[in-house]
Fold this sequence. Notes:
Helices cover 53% and strands 2% of the residues. The protein has helices spanning 2-18, 39-48, 52-65, 71-82, 85-88, 109-119, 128-140, 142-146, and strands at 91-92, 103-104. The chain has a two-stranded parallel sheet with strand order 1-2. Helix 4 (71-82) crosses helix 7 (128-140). It is elongated, with a radius of gyration of 18 Å.
Amino acid sequence: MEKQIKLMRSELDIVADRVAPSVGIVRATSFEFEPVGTKDELDDLELKLVDNDFKNKMEAFVDARLPTDSVDARLHASMDILFKREFVVNISWSGIGHPNPKIPFNNFKNILKFYKYIGTCQGLIPTDQKIKEVLQNKFRHSKQRLELVGLVKTSHHRYKKY
């Protein structure tokens, strides 16, 4: 009987760790992640996401810092957590850039899989097309985001459906 109670408590602790916190309260995590600022760091992140231990730490890290209200809000806010604004200017979805080529983001399959996790919210999972559209929009407007001063946060737009 005592073993069953201990087992149930450990399972409850695991579930409690995964449940979204109340609004304004985030889970504590000792893992720190410096936003990616170079092509080499992007390549390193791609390779590190293969390791399940690192991936689990990254998942806990982003869960503690991202909003839990919508898929769009999570995808939108993740850009500032994962990438430096100065670096995003050098990325495009396909690598095509004028006058110089850019880093093709569609080649980073592990990071794209991680974005699928980031966008998962309240039982909703974003499609690959949704992730592609959000990231293409972010890359397209990266120069305007670079000009934002201080801690000004951009936000996703919500449209009322009638």
